Sequence to fold (326 residues):
Amino acid sequence: MRAVMFHRYGPPEVLTQVELPKPEPRGDQVQIRVHATTVTSAECGMRRGEPRWGRVIIGPFRPRSGIRVLGLEFAGEVTAIGPQVRRYRTGDRVFGFTGFAVGANAEFKCLAEKASFTTIPPGVGYPEAAATVDGFTTAWHFLRQTVRVRPGQRVLVIGASGSIGTYAVQVAKRAGATVHGVCSGRNVKLVESLGADRVIDYTVEDFATSGERYDVVFDTVSRSSFAQCRKVLAPRGSYLPTTGLVNNVLQLRTALTGGPRVRTGMSVRKHAALAELRGLLERGDLKIVVDRTYPLDEIVAAHRYVDSGHKVGNVVITVPSGAIPL
Ligand SMILES: NC(=O)c1ccc[n+]([C@@H]2O[C@H](COP(=O)([O-])OP(=O)(O)OC[C@H]3O[C@@H](n4cnc5c(N)ncnc54)[C@H](OP(=O)(O)O)[C@@H]3O)[C@@H](O)[C@H]2O)c1
Fold:
């Protein structure tokens, strides 16, 4: 099967097209023919080997063998099942998250049936389905599981035009909150169309001096600090950063000292969020923002674009049938 691999950390050009043996499902595994995957900011970081401390997990000097095919999100079709599989059948359309196993930048991927995936509702295409998984489930994890946003609360989403941000605005709004978003001027109209009550253009206004007070500040893109956001947080408010080692320390400290708290972590167990996502897709109640779509053989260009830090929503990779020149 065709796949995209990297053997050393570096720029997008470290990615190469390769031919690998097709994985066969064993035991409780499902074999998925991947039709669409994505390039996320998180896996561009893995490709660069950043943050440096993350190399303790992904490989100190070069990426360890288990993560050399990237690809966190996928949508595709079940093409074979192991003898112990009970929930899925050949032909099922599925979408989900590969997690620490990565590997969706390939024609086929095998996952245990209990992994984070589910069936795609009728009428939803593979590219759209793939573009929902990590952004939505991460937004839902932070806003509905970590802090349980309630009606009437005030939520600020920093990075409201990104993958997590575009879903965070919708999740917070659906929970009954007043939502303000931070992005640059070119994305203001988009973020308003997702339901934001106010949009702050960071190129002309500093949200930290806006005089507003929020119950939750969700920094999806790590462009702020707790010190900066404290000024706009309610006395018992929560600051939710998606990354940053220092935030883990602050999380412990603010849990002991009272006042606004830092709540960080990783969205890993995604089943509850995927069930919610599937329902929204089935009812047509979620806006999916796809910025650009590339075929698998142009994935280097897709990584270059995501590395710019200015993608809007999601960047999708289609995995067409037929030979791609190696
Ligand atoms: N903790 C977890 O479980 C978890 C899960 C997934 C991802 N993550 C992490 O979350 C981070 C972001 O992910 P993402 O994919 O949502 O990001 P993304 O889609 O790459 O974000 C891009 C957006 O950020 C906006 N942006 C850039 N600078 C900004 C600023 N100063 N203020 C406000 N917005 C700004 C850009 O808008 P403009 O072009 O308008 O500037 C762009 O639309 C990554 O670091 C990833 O590793 C964490």
User: Anything to note?
Assistant: Residues 40-42, 45, 134-135, 138, 158-159, 161-165, 182-184, 186-187, 202, 220-223, 242-243, 266-267, 309-312 surround NAP (CB under 6 Å). The chain has a mean pLDDT of 96. The longest strand covers residues 29-38.
